[in-house]
């Protein structure tokens, strides 16, 4: 047997074969893991940098817009005030009652002096006093009122009072609610 | 700290294994303390970016709305609307309008009286009855006299002038002479101008078709009062003397 005459101060590794195999596998895992780690790190870092940059850009653009809007505060305040007033005015217009048409119609039905008075209370109920020289003259007036009732121009007409005085003058007080 | 020969030998023998373990530890801790926080920060940034983007869109819309309206036309529209429903009780314009309508209709305005004794004072004005629109009402009564046709004309015209007035009730008596005397309970409206400094972020919508129609309707109505200046909006401007008119 040939003797190994060389001098080797560093002794051979004494890693067992199974461990050596494990180290081989571990090395492959490490290389793969390291590669994935580096790639993921780069990707995440890149995405973070892009997002940060975009956020900075957007924030500065937003601040610029805000200062532009602040500079137009007067126009904004006027627009807001106009819209608020528009709502109020619109509602008032909607609720407005034009009594002219009701009065005109009453003067058509009972032309003065037959129509001696007409009043409207807060509940929109009309009280009309009609007087005629004869009772016969009252009939066409009543007929007109009935026609308007049938045509739904007036609602719930009621005769409050009807009388004939010594001189034969007929006086009718009628109440109704006009459809406005 | 010096390592013994055995320790050095151990490290030398297991160097490949130790190197792998160190690298794996670096990957592990790098993931825990580097990648995961970076992903979380990225998600947060994305959320912030979405918020800022939404703000930007809102602000852009607001800017477009403001750019589409000129301050002058807004001022003019508001002036017209404030003539219809003034910012204060504005009793003088009320009387002028009543006189104007009477004159146009050809009736005599015999008497006008405000229903609330102290309705001119600020405190009483604040307590004025409110209309369903949110405006406050100044109640008054008017006594008019004239031929029936003219009185009818008065009733037709009163609701069609730029100072809005509503008839609550009336009592119309036809005399033998053919003249009619009418006592009319009326109300006119006022609403304080609430011009305040809104934040830049506050939402703003353009004038709707209905609102534009209302403005056009009001603009078409005759204004029987003398023009009065609309107070300039006091946004961010402190009045040197708060009691000054």
SSE layout:
The complex is a heterodimer of chains A (180) and B (245).
Chain A: H1 17-71, H2 73-95, H3 100-109, E1 115-120, E2 126-132, H4 135-150, E3 154-164, E4 170-178
Antiparallel strand pairs in A: 1-2, 2-4, 3-4
Chain B: H1 5-13, H2 15-68, H3 71-84, H4 91-105, E1 108-114, H5 122-126, E2 136-147, H6 148-158, E3 165-174, E4 179-190, H7 209-220
Antiparallel strand pairs in B: 1-2, 2-4, 3-4
What is the CATH class name of the largest domain in chain B?
Answer: Alpha Beta
Strand content of chain B: 15-25%
Structural class of chain A: alpha+beta
Helix content of chain A: 55-70%
> What shape does the CA trace of chain A take?
rod-shaped
Beta-strand proportion of chain A: 15-25%
Note the total helix count of chain A.
4
Structural class of chain B: alpha+beta
Q: Rg of chain B from C-alpha positions?
A: 37 Å
- Through-space gap between termini of chain B: 89 Å
Number of domains of chain B: 2
| Chain pair with largest interface | A-B, 75 and 93 residues
H-E string of chain A: HHHEEHEE
């Amino acid at each position: 047997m040939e003797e190994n005459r060389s001098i080797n101060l560093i002794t051979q590794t004494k890693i067992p074969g199974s461990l050596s195999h494990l180290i081989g596998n571990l090395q492959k895992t490490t290389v793969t893991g390291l590669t994935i780690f580096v790639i993921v790190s780069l990707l995440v870092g890149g995405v973070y940098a892009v997002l940060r940059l975009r956020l900075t850009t957007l924030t500065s653009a937003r601040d610029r817009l805000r200062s532009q809007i602040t500079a137009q505060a007067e126009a904004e305040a006027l627009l807001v005030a106009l819209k608020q007033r528009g709502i109020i005015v619109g509602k008032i217009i909607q609720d407005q009652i034009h009594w002219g048409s009701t009065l005109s119609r009453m003067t058509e039905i009972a032309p003065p002096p037959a129509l001696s008075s007409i009043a409207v209370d807060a509940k929109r109920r009309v009280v009309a006093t009609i007087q005629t020289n004869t009772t016969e003259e009252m009939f066409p007036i009543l007929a007109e009122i009935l026609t308007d009732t049938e045509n739904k121009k007036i609602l719930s007409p009621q005769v409050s009072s009807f009388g004939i005085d010594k001189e034969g003058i007929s006086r009718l007080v009628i109440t109704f609610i006009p459809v406005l | 700290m010096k390592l013994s020969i055995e320790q050095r030998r151990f490290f030398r023998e297991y160097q490949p294994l130790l190197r792998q373990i160190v690298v794996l530890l670096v990957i592990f801790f790098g993931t825990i303390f580097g990648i995961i926080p970076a992903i979380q920060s990225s998600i947060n940034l994305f959320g912030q970016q979405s918020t800022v983007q939404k703000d930007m869109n809102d602000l852009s819309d607001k800017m477009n709305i403001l750019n589409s309206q000129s301050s002058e036309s807004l001022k003019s529209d508001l002036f017209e609307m404030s003539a219809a429903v003034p910012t204060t009780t504005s009793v003088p314009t009320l009387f002028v309008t009543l006189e104007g309508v009477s004159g146009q209709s050809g009736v005599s305005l015999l008497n006008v009286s405000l229903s609330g004794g102290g309705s001119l004072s600020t405190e009483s004005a604040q307590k004025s009855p409110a209309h369903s629109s949110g405006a406050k009402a100044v109640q008054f009564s008017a006594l008019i006299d004239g031929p029936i046709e003219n009185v009818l004309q008065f009733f037709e015209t009163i609701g069609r002038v730029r100072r809005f007035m509503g008839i609550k009730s009336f009592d119309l008596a036809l005399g033998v002479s053919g003249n009619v005397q009418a006592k009319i309970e009326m109300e006119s409206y006022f609403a304080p101008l609430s011009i305040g400094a809104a934040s830049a972020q506050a939402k703003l919508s353009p004038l709707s078709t209905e609102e534009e129609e209302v403005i056009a309707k009001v603009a078409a109505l005759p204004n029987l009062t003398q023009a009065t200046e609309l107070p300039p909006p006091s946004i961010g401007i402190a009045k040197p003397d708060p009691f000054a008119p």
